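[09:14] KT: can someone run the structure on this one? pasting the chain below
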Amino acid sequence: MNVDRFKSVLPTRVRRPLGVTRRWLRSLPSRTLRQKMQLLKSNRLTPDEFDLLAKIDSRISYEDGMYAGNGDHYFRVGLSAIQCINQALNQTRIEPIRKILDLPCGYGRVLRFLVHRFSNARITACELMPDAVEFCAKTFGAVPAYAKQNPSELSFADQFDLIWCGSLFTHLDQTGIVALLDLFRRSLLPDGVAVFTTQGERVVERMIAREYDYGIAIEKIPLIVGAYRESGYGFTTYPDVSEYGVAGDAGYGISLTAPDWIRAQARSVGGLREIYFRAHAWDDHQDVFGFVRQD
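[09:31] RB: done, structure tokens below
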């Protein structure tokens, strides 16, 4: 009997505790440290990546949904984010980086690298999940901030030289995307840069090939892809939004956005100028933009 079939025959009251135990065991610090060391020994890293990975804290929360037991991939995704940020910063004049926002920070998949790449910066960790914020504050010394489902209701005491936003546009409808761009405009210092990811052609290819359904109903894939092909934008909610911690929020699901469509939304917000774009640059998966605040 395979694992999924075994789980399906167990009552919920038994299945959930077993799942927690399994996640806890696979994220034991000794195991994640061993995975980090294996990657360091792999000869697949550049010298800069090696030096950065060697410094990071390898502890991973058992609640981190981005970690499914594969430390090699988990750490390489963090390194890929830093590579994209470095490339975007090379197109700016801002120096030094003193204040950074990681939104959404999750349980620190990228933040653990940010704290060493920008060791003199004050880094704010912002997320809808309070436990994730608290993990990042306790483990990586980040300043905690608690997000709101509607970006237009969110504000910060600080303004930032750098905002990293990995895989949030990818879950918002058009209203949420415009509100998030406006949040960047309000939250960046003059000439500060927001580096963020979106889902474009690479994700469409994976959907069509049925490599991954991205948590949406299979019958919705032709609809979201068709809308994307026609207008540059497609969106659908998850089958059960409550499973993703945003119960009742009809504006949360999976979005597909063409680069020119994102550019048009940024123009509608104003005060932002594109300085960087690379298709599927983050982990050979999501597209990456860099926009600076321009008053």
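[09:33] KT: thanks! DSSP finds eleven helices and nine strands in the chain.
[09:34] RB: yep, looked fine to me
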